[in-house]
Specification:
Elements: H1 2-17, H2 28-37, H3 45-54, E1 72-73, E2 78-79, H4 89-97, H5 101-106, H6 108-126, H7 137-143, H8 152-161
Antiparallel strand pairs: 1-2
Helix pairs in contact: 2-6, 4-6
């Protein structure tokens, strides 16, 4: 009887809350366009980065942090000035993709396509076109704003992020 009640309540909960579990992606068409332009980028990789970094929010960050943290920009959460600790991955993505930092910061679709272009360029550089997402760790580290420093604290931060 307890199992039946648990099942009924679980089913009822899922049925009534199913819509709240769905995440809206306002940039779905932009992601589709990026995958069409760069088909070697694994499907879902761009969304995973955008969700992790910004929860699909295009960041303009017109105000400075009150505690001096670096600002992230665009739906991809790219850092412009790492404040001598974080890496400035906005300039790295701009350099690899050929888009300007200004365009990447201002336009969500441009930032998505620029990130895809940078990812593709690193895929080509490393000859990595695997179907296994774990094989892209090196590329994700290269595109991350997190520092690559050989100490236990930063190693923990990077590995937690990935």
């Amino acid at each position: 009887m307890k199992k039946l009640l648990l099942f009924v309540f679980s089913a009822l909960f899922l049925a009534t809350n199913a819509n709240s579990l769905i995440v809206e992606n306002p940039y779905a068409n932009s992601f589709k366009k990026a995958y069409a332009l760069y088909p070697s980028v694994p499907k879902g990789m761009l969304e995973a980065v955008a969700w992790t970094q910004t929860r699909f929010t295009h960041l303009a960050n017109e105000e400075n942090s009150c505690i001096g943290l670096p600002q992230a920009f665009s739906v991809m959460g790219l850092t412009e000035d790492g404040k001598d600790y974080f890496r400035s991955n906005l300039s790295f993505v701009a350099q690899l993709s050929g888009f300007t930092e200004k365009d990447i910061k201002q336009h969500a679709e441009t930032s998505i396509i620029a990130y895809a272009a940078a990812f593709h360029k690193l895929q080509t550089l490393h000859s990595n076109f695997s179907n296994n997402p774990a094989d892209y760790k090196k590329i994700l580290v290269e595109l991350s704003e997190l520092p690559v420093v050989n100490n236990i604290t930063n190693d923990f931060v990077m590995n937690s992020h990935l």
